[in-house]
Design goal:
It is a single chain. By secondary structure, this protein is mainly α. The protein is built from ten helices and no strands. Helix 1 runs antiparallel to helix 7. It starts with 5 loop residues before the first helix and ends with a helix.
Length: 238
């Protein structure tokens, strides 16, 4: 096996850590219920996990994206226009990017929640480990390192530069989730025609978004769309 390439290792681990931070912020954000906010976060998280899992089930049904878009259009200032607009765009793009891999990616997100995130205030190291296993991080690093090991210095320099650009791209796509997560709490007060509040559905969209984007940009073998040239493909010079 080829030795681990430092840039491959750095970029892959950054993507995993950033995705873990996004997931924990989402759970913490939706746990910030405007009425029950006085409860300790640990008391809220189990119920929140269940609510998001139910919301992911709803995302498997046709027409739910349109419901979310219409709901955010009608919020009338109950959340910021920036958050509502970003959620609309994420929901619309999510539907396009998922494509035929919709079921498997949603199932991966449910599995992540099913393993138990716990208290987001202390969960980052645990979730990093969970996300690393979810994306087969070690396999990604091994395949990418092997691909980049046997090329000359000039080509390796170019490929490592493209990996650095990917790290920056991942920040642009995933980091905004941590900002949007802060606005999830008030969405418990926004009812939907399908009989559930908007908060867990919005959280499910953001959770699936993080899993989808990060998995794709890593080129994991796990279910993910082929939307970007990720860590492995860029290491191969594609």
């Amino acid at each position: 096996m080829s030795p681990v390439n430092g840039q491959v290792d750095r970029v892959a681990r950054t993507v995993v850590e950033r995705s873990a931070n996004g997931v924990t912020r989402i759970v913490a954000g939706v746990a910030a219920h405007p009425i029950l906010g006085a409860l300790p976060l640990k008391a809220m998280v189990p119920g929140v996990d269940g609510a998001i899992r139910n919301a992911i089930d709803l995302l498997k049904e046709d027409g739910v994206e349109e419901t979310i878009v219409h709901a955010t259009d009608a919020l009338n200032g109950r959340v910021s226009k920036l958050a509502g607009g970003a959620l609309r765009r994420a929901t619309g793009l999510l539907a396009k990017v998922l494509g035929t891999r919709r079921g498997p990616v949603l199932t991966e997100s449910e599995t992540l929640l099913g393993q138990g995130i716990g208290d987001p205030a202390t969960a980052i190291p645990l979730v990093v480990n969970l996300m690393g296993r979810l994306f087969d991080q070690d396999d990604v690093i091994a395949r990418a390192s092997e691909a980049i090991a046997d090329v000359g210095w000039a080509k390796r320099h170019v490929r490592e530069g493209r990996l650095e650009k990917l790290r920056h791209s991942n920040e642009l796509w995933v980091r905004p989730v941590t900002v949007l997560a802060h606005g999830l709490g008030p969405l418990w007060l926004v009812p939907l025609p399908i009989g559930v509040p908007l908060a867990p559905l919005a959280a499910a969209v953001l959770l699936v978004w993080v899993v989808l984007i990060s998995g794709d940009q890593l080129d994991t073998r796990r279910p993910a769309p082929d939307f970007w040239k990720g860590v492995v493909r860029r290491s191969k010079g594609e």
